[in-house]
Design goal:
This protein has a domain of 109 residues. 10% of the residues lie in helices and 51% in strands. It is built from 3 helices and 43 strands. A hairpin with a 5-residue loop joins strand 3 and strand 4.
Length: 437
């Protein structure tokens, strides 16, 4: 649970230390290495023990994996044309390509492509309709991978295109969200000074601003945050809550169909579940739900102490707490705490102390054991450790920093670093738990 500012400051100096010209990363499961090397002025990509594929140039910022790590895609240049290489096989040539994205199951791949000043979205190598431009990072598959949406500009208007069909025109478009079954799509849109949620192509009530949008476990309409003169409200299919000074982290505890969010109110922040506010704290942090969708929890922080709140009920009081995590089936929870000068993971069996514990890294393995990134301050090393197992895996700072450097996200470096670090710990913990293969 090292101080966040210290961790991020250290990360900022690492990308320059990555060896050049070779670049190396790992598939999401950390079982296969991907390496880019220079050979006779060409960039060669090698996945595992497969033969290398060489190109005149490779855009590392566009390299993506499918969620299971079984597929890889990246932009590559041959002479003057660019292509997306998928699992070693080049696609159609274009003047430019960008933003490749896999469907959740890895079966489909879409990307933006440019030719003769016209942009198109190409899905599984089938080009879509012509548009003037495509919003960066807007390509979005639904959970099944059968539906694709993106934001584009045509005839001077911003539109969302769903399965090839353009929607109404606006001045600006926000993030796109599909319902769990893919039957509905929603996004925020701005026309002049007003904003509205657009559901299935139909603008809803106008507001000053639209915040987060989240679909519930049923296939009905979404819940979303909206700001008007009196403040922020949360608008759900059957209720409107608020006003609040601010709203964030809209989340459905899906097994209970409970809408949970953090609201800023007079005196601090509170977590609200099914419209019922909890205690007011100076700040509410680390809101987390379990994968089964039955449980949720958060840390309520005041100036002198932190409270652990599970399923709406106070569970513990500590000097400093971070990182609540749930086992996949929701039967266990754990949190990271600082007790005096000792860092510890606290679970139902008690406190498990460490010399150092890095904030934001506490997770559970599929088997129900917790894992995290811990440190040896004397030897200046970090390790991934798993509950109940003696094996630890050394954390590779250089490789991790190289991944961050190759895939920058403007304005989102801290968020990107946190996501990558957590995914790293999850992958390493699985390797430790599963043992040698």
């Amino acid at each position: 649970m090292a101080r966040r500012a210290g961790i991020l400051a250290l990360l900022a100096c690492l990308p320059g230390c990555v060896p050049r010209p070779a670049w190396r990363t790992l598939t999401p499961d950390h079982r296969t290495a991907v390496e880019v090397t220079e050979r006779n002025g060409r960039a060669c990509v090698r996945v595992g023990h497969s033969p290398a594929s060489c190109h005149d140039a490779v855009a590392l910022t566009g390299l993506v994996f499918s969620a299971d790590g079984g597929h890889i895609a990246y932009p590559a240049r041959q002479v003057r044309e660019w292509t997306i290489v998928r699992d070693g096989i080049p696609g159609s040539p274009w003047e430019g390509v960008a933003d490749p994205v896999f469907s959740p199951d890895g079966a489909h791949l879409a990307y933006a492509a440019l030719r003769d000043t016209v942009w198109r979205v190409v899905e599984d190598e089938v080009p879509g309709g012509a548009v003037d431009s495509i919003f960066t990072a807007s390509l979005t598959f639904d959970a099944s991978g059968q539906h694709l949406a993106y934001a584009a500009v045509t005839q001077g208007r911003a539109r969302v295109v769903v399965d090839g069909h353009p929607g109404p025109g606006f001045d600006a478009i926000g993030r796109i969200a599909f319902s769990g079954d893919g039957a509905h799509v929603a996004y925020a849109a701005r026309a002049g000074r007003t904003a509205a949620l657009v559901l299935d192509g139909q603008p809803q009530q106008s507001h000053d601003a639209i915040g987060e949008i989240v679909f519930g476990p049923q296939s009905g309409g979404p819940a979303y945050a909206a700001r008007d003169d009196r403040g922020w409200r949360v608008i759900a299919p059957s209720t409107t809550l608020g006003p609040y000074q601010a709203v964030r982290q809209l989340t459905y505890v899906r097994g209970r169909q409970t809408l949970v969010f953090v609201a800023r109110v007079e005196g601090g922040e509170t977590a609200i579940a099914d419209g019922v506010p909890g205690p007011v704290f100076r700040a509410v942090e680390h809101l987390a739900t379990d994968a089964s969708g039955d449980h949720w929890g958060y840390v309520g922080r005041d100036s002198a102490a932190s409270a652990v709140v599970l399923d709406g009920r106070p569970a513990a009081q500590e000097t400093q707490v971070s990182d609540i995590a749930w086992s996949p089936d929701g039967s266990r929870s754990a949190y990271a705490a600082l007790r005096g000068d000792v860092f510890a993971v606290v679970d139902e069996h008690g406190a498990h102390p460490f010399d150092m514990l890095v904030e934001g890294t506490l997770v559970f393995t599929p088997g129900g054991a917790w894992a995290c990134l811990v440190g040896d301050r004397r030897n200046h090393r970090l390790y991934v450790t798993v509950e109940g197992l003696r094996e630890r895996r050394l954390f590779d700072w250089g490789l991790y920093a190289g991944i961050l450097a190759a895939r920058p996200r403007p304005g989102g470096d801290p968020e990107r670093a946190a996501e990558t670090l957590r995914a790293w710990v999850e992958a390493e913990a699985r390797l430790i738990s599963e043992g040698p293969r």
